């Protein structure tokens, strides 16, 4: 690690991030082990560990066996020192999770939707949660919107949030770091983190039909794809039939007389989208919300998609718990904020 970074603040941030992430990954380490692992001088490591122990970030977990000299103190990170809050906004509900630095869930709950209210109502609720637990040091918010650097640039149906800088608003009100992410980007990140596909550097598409219209989270070679204007995954606009896009095709299907006709029409639209993703991205897997499809429907989608593209090039099709994947993706983003803090 290079200690000669642009500013003292950036240097401190990089060193703290390295120490925290290493201790959380290894479980414990000595000063010498951290110095070697992070390529930092022993005095630098000692200075930071002394302050972190004083602040309650570190736990002394015993002395190593002697190899002839002074026995080395072993340190572990205190996972309860900082907590994160993840919250996502849906049309019908608001879900949240409080978690510690190793991802253990301390509290999880659901309240009424704030998307149909105003920003102040949401702010008061989040402030209430943060006041109840002062150790909360990061906030990650998921929204059914295209997001550019914390600003909601496309959120149809909720004009009070359009072009609103949610990140800046909450950082100003709470004085903690905040990340704002598109719902499907968070979901595909959470699914990948929980070992949904074992291949390293996997490519995934997470498709959700949802209460706010369809959307997709896309991960290529292990990296989120946001697009040049942060509009990636807005699959409502994908053309499918004469003068119809994906959203319009789904809506037409809902207007048919029988349930079988409605399901057949919807699955045909989904199958065409699966074939398009397969031909353009060739992902390892396409994931659906398990509230929206069952195994029989997945089999029908696979068979219908094979009418458009050779079956051997189709990805794995699977269903998962979208709400949990969504929250775990937000948790991932919140943990990253916590270990990068310059203040414990």
Characterization of the model:
By secondary structure, the chain is α/β, with parallel strands linked by helices. The protein is built from 10 helices and 17 strands. The strands form 5 sheets. The chain has a 5-stranded mixed β-sheet with strand order 6-5-4-7-10, with helices on both faces. A hairpin with a 4-residue loop joins strand 5 and strand 6 (105-111). Helix 8 packs across helix 9 (295-305). The protein is globular. The mean pLDDT is 91.
What would you say about this model in short?
The protein has 344 residues and is an alpha/beta fold.
Descriptive terms for the model:
344 residues
Structural class: alpha/beta
Q: How are the strands of the largest sheet arranged?
A: 6-5-4-7-10
Total DSSP E strands: 17
Overall, the morphology is: globular
Poorly predicted regions: none
Average pLDDT, rounded to a whole number, is 91
Order of helices and strands: HEHHEEEEEHEEEHEHEEEEEHHEHEH
Indicate the percent of residues in helices: 25-40%
């Amino acid at each position: 690690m290079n200690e000669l970074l642009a500013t003292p603040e950036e240097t401190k941030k990089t060193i703290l991030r390295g120490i925290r992430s290493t201790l959380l990954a290894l479980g414990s380490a000595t000063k010498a082990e951290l110095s070697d692992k992070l390529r930092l001088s022993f005095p630098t490591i000692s200075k930071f560990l002394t302050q972190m122990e004083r602040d309650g970030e570190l736990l002394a977990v015993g002395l190593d066996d002697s190899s002839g000299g002074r026995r080395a103190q072993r340190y572990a990170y205190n996972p309860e020192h900082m907590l994160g809050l993840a919250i996502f906004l849906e049309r019908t509900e608001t879900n949240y999770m409080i978690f510690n630095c190793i991802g253990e869930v301390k509290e999880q709950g659901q309240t009424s939707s704030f998307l149909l209210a105003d920003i102040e109502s949401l702010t008061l609720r989040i402030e209430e949660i943060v006041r109840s637990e002062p150790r909360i040091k990061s906030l990650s918010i998921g929204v059914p919107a295209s997001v550019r650097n914390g600003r909601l640039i496309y959120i149809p149906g909720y004009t009070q949030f359009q072009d609103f800088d949610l990140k800046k608003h909450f950082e100003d009100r709470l004085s903690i770091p905040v990340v704002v992410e598109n719902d499907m980007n968070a979901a595909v990140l959470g699914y990948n983190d929980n070992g949904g596909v074992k291949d390293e550097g996997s490519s995934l598409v997470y498709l959700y039909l949802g209460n706010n219209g369809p959307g997709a989270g896309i991960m290529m070679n292990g990296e989120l794809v946001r697009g040049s204007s942060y509009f990636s995954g807005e699959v409502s606009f994908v053309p499918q039939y004469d003068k119809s896009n994906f959203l319009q095709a789904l809506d037409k299907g809902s207007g048919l007389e029988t349930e079988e006709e409605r399901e057949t029409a919807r699955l045909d639209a989904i199958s065409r989208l699966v074939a398009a993703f397969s031909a353009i991205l060739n992902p390892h897997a396409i994931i659906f919300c398990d509230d929206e499809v069952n195994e029989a429907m997945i089999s029908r989608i696979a068979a219908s998609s094979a009418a458009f593209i050779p079956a051997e090039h189709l990805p794995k099709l699977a269903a998962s718990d979208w709400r949990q994947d969504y929250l775990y993706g937000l948790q991932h983003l919140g943990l990253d904020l916590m270990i990068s803090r310059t203040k414990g």
